[in-house]
Design a protein that fits this description.
Number of helices: 7
Largest sheet: 3 strands, antiparallel
Radius of gyration: 19 Å
Order of helices and strands: HHHHEHEEHH
Helix content: 55-70%
Structural class: mainly alpha
Number of domains: 1
Shape: globular
Length: about 220
Amino acid sequence: MPSAREQRATLQLLTAAAVEDAQSFLAGTVGSPEQRRLQMLDTVPSLIGYYADGSSALAADFYEESREAAAVRSVFQVVPVVADRTVKIRRGIAWAAEPLFGDVDADPAERLAEVVQLESARPYRDTILSNRRQDPAAVGWARATAGGCKFCLMLADRGAVYREQTANFAAHSHCHCTAYPVFKGGEHGPEANAVQYLASRRSRSPAQRAYIRAYLNENYPDVHG
């Protein structure tokens, strides 16, 4: 079976293909800014949906293979997970289209890439985390990263296992990290520490963000981000 790092690379290829298709579509839109935005809103969500299905299926297959590799004897039905994010995706596309109107100094293609990459990668992570919560044989999940930034490197450090059911997968723009399941009886790292759990929260106070930034700068001084 492929390793977690190999899966991360495969997911990156999938999201890159999604971004390429979306940007090609944007380049082919015509008319006024309003018309081009409407064309994006009519087409890009379904494009993201296509790649989201592939992303979740990739994760489901990997979850099953990981279970087999860990010699888990119990039976469990792995379910691909694609959350309904229609409203947020449409908001993201509208945000990406803002530079078309000339009021924002930004590249609409770059903005669109940010939205598409994040939304096409999300179902992979959601599938791993959702099935881990339902699977009695799983003790948690861990993070596979290329170590591109301080934040991701810290979250994956020591092979940390996120055991808490509520642990969120923190991701930034153009984040290529993935999650992989950890099972009882298998070799794995220690449980995530307090800082790793804190950084994984969906929302943090200004004081907490400042604490995390100071922690990153102190412990990962040679890594950018």
